[in-house]
Amino acid sequence: MEKYKVGSLIYDGNIYDGMNTDIDDLSFYSNWFKKKKDGNILELCCGTGRLTIPLVQAGYNIIGVDNNASMLKQAKDKANGLNVSIEFIESDIRNLDLPETYDIIFIPFNSIHHLYTNQDFFNVLINVKKHLKDDGYFLFDCFNPNIHYIVNAEKEENIIAEYSTKDSRNVVIKQTMIYENTTQINRIKWHYFIDGVFDSIQDLDMRLFFPKELDAYLSFHGFEIINKFGGFNEEVFENKSEKQIFVCKKIAIANMNESV
Q: At what angle do helices 211-220 and 118-131 cross, to 10 degrees?
């Protein structure tokens, strides 16, 4: 499965932060974290600390995990610049092995879409369950696949972003995509133009997860879905929802045995 990947330029810290400035998910996660205000929280796929840093500033105890060294360097530099103390750990969440358990574990910002096989996702669920306290919460968000959008987007190249980075690069990104039915992977390519000059084509492959599929995977791996929202304002999940936002709890072993 090595042919599926995310291009290195997409994970360039300044390129990434220049594009990903929205924090419309911050209030959602913060509100749920209040249920475990003094608990220990683990963020998987923390990236450059887009959520980690403001959540720690708000008083939450969070450790950030990511497997990309350049993204973590950006996160550490930003935290240090704000005099915010955060532990960041470089690790692949598919084989995560930490000594502690946590009151809340969350995977924000559509990150599960880069788990390209079922086994990749299953390994993450196994590790989340291993690191989650019995009364803890597991939260994550992802897209609700929109086949109509994919079909239309396959027809032509579209500009999806224009912005300037903190290191003074003017970036334009044009997107093309082709969806693979057999693998459920959307083969997205971002065509980067920097300071008016074509730079490169970067892969942004994303595995799509359909609603009933995710419900079944979570149940099979011992998670109860407490809430499933269609947006960060806790809208009811429905056919037109752009997002799937999950709030789960670990099912106790005794309860799982009773349901078998």
A: 50
Name the nearest CA neighbour of 176 among 185, 188, 186: 188
Nearest one of 60, 59, 22, 85 to 139, comparing CA atoms: 60
Chain segment 152-181, per-residue pLDDT in tens: 999 999 999 999 999 999 999 999 999 999
Per-residue b or e along 100-128, where b marks 16 or more CB atoms closer than 10 Å to that residue's CB: eebbbbbbbbbbbbbbbeeebbebbbebb
What are residue 156's phi and psi, to 5 degrees? -155, 165
Query: What's the distance, Cα to Cα, between the start and end of the chain in Å?
Result: 34
Answer yes or no: is pLDDT of 257 > 80. no
Both structure tokens of 227 = 């809430």
Cα distance between residue 18 and residue 164, in whole Å:
6
- What letters, b where the CB count within 10 A reaches 16 and e where it falls short, cover 145-175? beeeeeeebeeeeeeeeeeebeeebebbbbb
- The pLDDT of residue 253: 65
Contact predicate 122/221, CB 8 Å: yes
Fill in the amino acid letter for 114: H
pLDDT tens digits for range 144-155: 999 999 999 999
Report pTM. Answer: 0.95
Question: What ranges do the domains of the chain cover?
Answer: 13-144+209-259, 147-206
Domain 13-144+209-259 CATH class label: alpha beta
Task: Judge whether 75 and 88 are in contact, CB under 8 Å.
Answer: yes
Residue 53 · residue 75 · CB < 8 Å: yes
